[in-house]
Specification:
The complex is a heterodimer of chains A (about 120) and B (about 120). With about 120 residues, chain A is an all-beta fold. Helix content of chain A is about 0%, strand content about 50%. Chain A has no helices and 12 strands. In chain A, the strands form 3 sheets. In chain A, strands 2, 5, 6, 10, 11 and 12 form a 6-stranded mixed sheet that branches. A 4-stranded antiparallel sheet of chain A has the order 3-9-8-7, with no helix packed on it. Chain A has a two-stranded antiparallel sheet with strand order 1-4. Chain B starts with a strand and ends with a strand. Classes of the chains: A mainly beta (about 120), B mainly beta (about 120).
Chain lengths: ~120, ~120
């Protein structure tokens, strides 16, 4: 079945450091890939997505590229801020045509950014 | 409302009791989802509604779990004869588009503890 494997946390960085959170997936067909973020005390929010191979999703300085050959969707940011401290979830859907119905999530990676 | 609202925020119950968890989606959102998240894990799909129709309940663990959305807005997830293994964060999400396409907005969740 479909699955998502995320880099285990917690990850602790200093402000302005470079961030990478690794995500690899197993899926049949052509899933869409997502990164969701959960700030303390809030619900999950969609951060970015990519719907086909070689697509790059980007938002708020974060980027991730859909790599079909390595089945990966690593999250990167060039310079993190304290306000980026949150839990990050990689996810894929089981639908088609970019639908995000019935998401499969990774376990989440806690990021803490220190001033 | 401004976002997806879930109540109660915390629920502590004794084994064998029934519980009802409420979700109030963003006004006008067609699709509604329930997910369950165990500690240290990512959310797992439970069930999905389009308007009042329950389109997929394949993620409900057993027949003690049920969900309804009678008027296509507020939804209730009911767990009968609760067991300790039901303890988890229960998350509701909604999306504007039908059939699950589009961006999911999650509530802050209901933390259920079964003693």
């Amino acid at each position: 079945g479909n699955s998502v494997t995320q880099m285990e946390g917690p990850v602790t960085l200093s402000e302005e450091a470079f961030l990478t959170i690794n995500c690899t997936y197993t899926a049949t067909g052509y899933p869409s890939l997502f990164w969701y973020v959960q700030y303390p005390g809030e619900g999950l929010q969609l951060l970015l997505k990519a719907t086909k191979a070689d697509d790059k999703g980007s938002n708020k300085g974060f980027e991730a590229t859909y790599r079909k050959e390595t089945t990966s969707f690593h999250l990167e940011k060039g310079s993190v801020q304290v306000s980026d401290s949150a839990v990050y979830f990689c996810a894929l859907d089981r639908g088609s045509g970019g639908s995000n119905y019935k998401l499969t999530f990774g376990k989440g990676t806690l990021l803490t950014v220190n001033p | 409302g401004a976002g997806v609202s879930q109540s109660p925020r915390y629920k502590v119950t004794k084994r064998g009791q029934d519980v009802a968890l409420r979700c109030d989606p963003i006004s006008g959102h067609v699709s509604l989802y329930w997910y369950r998240q165990a500690l240290g894990q990512g959310p797992e799909f439970l069930t999905y509604f389009n308007y009042e129709a329950q389109q997929d309940k394949s993620g409900l663990p057993n027949d003690r779990f049920s969900a309804e959305r009678p008027e296509g807005s507020i939804s209730t997830l009911t767990i009968q004869r609760t067991e300790q293994r039901d303890s988890a964060m229960y998350r509701c999400a909604s999306s504007l588009a039908a059939r699950g396409a589009g961006k999911l907005f999650f509530g802050s969740g209901t933390q259920l503890s079964v003693l």
